[in-house]
Amino acid sequence: MIAPRVRRVVYVGSSSQTARLVSQTLQAVADWEAVDLPAEAPLLGVAASLPEVAVVDLQAASPIGWEWLSYIRVLAPMTHVVVLVTTANTSLVLAAIQAGALGWLDTQQIAAELPAALHRAWRQRGVLTPALARLIQHHYAAVFLPHERAILATFARGHTFAVVSATLGIEEPYLERHIGNILLKLMAVPDADALAAVAEELVTTASRGALGLAPARDAPRIADER
């Protein structure tokens, strides 16, 4: 019997607690292995030699994660990226996708959702939430084919993944593949508005933190959509 291929995953971020959680979660998964970044290595050198998948921690008040996304896209295009968006803000999720992310989840979802998110990213498949579908539909409807617009419209109406699959008559694995194609198309759309949305969100999050307020949340958990 041929043993399954083990793919390496690296956590890119400044939280040792989140790094441990990623590592502990993957210890129970046979085909994924968490590896460490070289200590104090130059960013450019590390980005050019990343493993198969990178879990990039996008802290809303820091530009470091976004800097990593840009380096990975240019220097390590074969590395598949899953982002951790701690605020789960839809505008940030969309901007991360356009910057090269193939998957996303909230830090609180790591234990339950990380393995599935890694598998989807590796196979270039995806999922949508209603909030994200509405945002994509609002800004980029003209980019997509009719069947892709139908997928966005059905998710935008608030339907779950299973209901969208049944409504459109698309089996779930193929629906994930169509969504993956939607995400890949978004990466090819140059958009200053996405960068502006990120800048606005960084300012908003920093301001709310200074006031002692909780970060804004407008994207439901992926688990709730399935």
Q: What's the helix and strand layout?
A:
Blueprint: E1 7-12, H1 16-27, E2 32-35, H2 43-47, E3 53-58, H3 64-75, E4 80-85, H4 90-98, E5 103-105, H5 110-122, H6 130-140, H7 146-156, H8 161-168, H9 172-187, H10 192-210, H11 222-225
Parallel strand pairs: 1-2, 1-3, 3-4, 4-5
Write a short abstract of this structure.
This protein has helices at 16-27, 43-47, 64-75, 90-98, 110-122, 130-140, 146-156, 161-168, 172-187, 192-210, 222-225, and strands spanning 7-12, 32-35, 53-58, 80-85, 103-105. The protein has 226 residues and is an alpha/beta fold. Helix 1 links the parallel strand 1 (7-12) and strand 2.
What key phrases describe this protein's structure?
226 residues; alpha/beta; Rossmann fold; 11 helices; 5 strands; globular; disordered C terminus
Tell me about this structure.
The protein has 226 residues and is an alpha/beta fold. It has a domain at 7-124: Rossmann fold (3-Layer(aba) Sandwich). 53% of the residues lie in helices and 11% in strands. It has 11 helices and 5 strands. A 5-stranded parallel β-sheet has the order 2-1-3-4-5, with helices on both faces. Strand 1, helix 1 (16-27) and strand 2 form a beta-alpha-beta unit. The protein starts with 6 loop residues before the first strand and ends with a helix. Residues 208-226 have low confidence and may be disordered.
